[in-house]
Amino acid sequence: MPAAYQRILLKLSGEALMGDDAYGINRETISRIVDEIASVVALGVEVGVVIGGGNIFRGMAGASAGMERATADYMGMLATVMNGMALQDAMRNAGVESRVQSALNIEQVIEPYIRGKAMRYLEEGKVVVFAAGTGNPFFTTDTAAALRGAEIGAQIVLKATKVDGVYTADPMKDKSATRYDRVSFDEAISRDLKVMDATALALCRDQKLPINVFSIFKAGALKRVVMGEDEGTMVYC
Fold first, then answer.
1. Does 196 map to a domain?
2. How far is 132 from 104, CA to CA, in rounded Å?
3. Residue 33's pLDDT is what?
4. Which residues lie closer than 8 Å to 237 by C-beta, 6 or more apart?
5. Which phi and psi (to 5°) does residue 108 adopt?
6. Does some domain include residue 214?
7. Which candidate among 106, 138, 176, 230 keeps its CA 20 to 30 Å from the CA of 67?
8. Structural domain tally of the chain?
9. pLDDT at site 65
10. Closest Cα to residue 164, out of 83, 220, 118?
11. Structural Rg of the chain based on CA atoms
12. pTM for the structure as a whole
């Protein structure tokens, strides 16, 4: 049975890399995430990844502590570069070919984001990790995921989280919260369902780029989403 999508953009939060740790990168957790990605690559699916940096530094948190917002956001972008390098190293250990591209120019460490090269890498079957967000302060990595997804012609944005979809309320706080199987972009925005930030949602809606929100900690969930099975919450136009 062929995959439902041939090219995807996977949005990974920095917090997903922590596992049960309070900070940083948990090797067991990142290895498990790489195994999930490898299972999709084995199907012939082209995979782009946008990585967050909240496990190391979060720009909004820095700004709320009194730091200038732009400075804090640039620090957050550098945190995503570190995560991207760690993810690439874990993929190399698992035999998955990958490239990391940065929206900030730090060529001594990793290559800059160039759309044409990214497209070629994807066509060659390499996983492309997009680091440093959009390269601009005041934008989240959610927005970077929507932007890169549109740029590379992805058929869907997959947002990997700690919960298995979009709920009517925070399921960690409200036990009566129920999960949506499907929800429209307009409903997600009007009800402020916290799928992604408003800029990212609007961009995906305008580009008719669906989003699936699922749990990266649920074994096989990424593969089930890519195969078109009922997994997570689909946000549609």
1. no
2. 6
3. 97
4. 184, 185, 205, 208, 210
5. -70, -15
6. no
7. 106
8. 1
9. 77
10. 220
11. 17
12. 0.94
Pairing of strands 156-161, 211-215: parallel
Burial of 65 (0-12, 13-18, 19+ CB in 10 A): exposed
**Looking at residue 19, what is its pLDDT?**
85
- Here the CATH number for the domain that contains residue 148 is 3.40.1160.10
Of 134, 123, 116, 131, the closest CA to residue 97 belongs to 123
User: What is the predicted pLDDT for the residue at 46?
Assistant: 98
- Asked whether residue 208 is assigned to any structural domain, the reply reads no
170 lies in some domain: no
Q: What does the block give as tokens for 145? A: 């995921």
> Which of 4, 3, 12, 39 minimizes the C-alpha distance to 129?
12
Residue 116 structural domain: 7-160+219-232
Q: Residue 108: its pLDDT value, please?
A: 94
Residue-by-residue DSSP string for the chain: ---S-SEEEEEE-GGGGTTTSSSS--HHHHHHHHHHHHHHHTTT-EEEEEE--TTT--HHHHHHTTS-HHHHHHHHHHHHHHHHHHHHHHHHHTT--EEEEESS--TTTSEEP-HHHHHHHHHTT-EEEEESTTSSTT--HHHHHHHHHHHTT-SEEEEEESSSS-BSS-TTT-TT--B-SEEEHHHHHHTT--SS-HHHHHHHHHTT--EEEEETTSTTHHHHHHTT-S-SEEEE-
10-residue block means of pLDDT along the chain (237 residues)?
A: 95 92 92 97 98 86 81 95 97 98 96 98 98 96 98 98 90 88 94 91 96 96 96 95
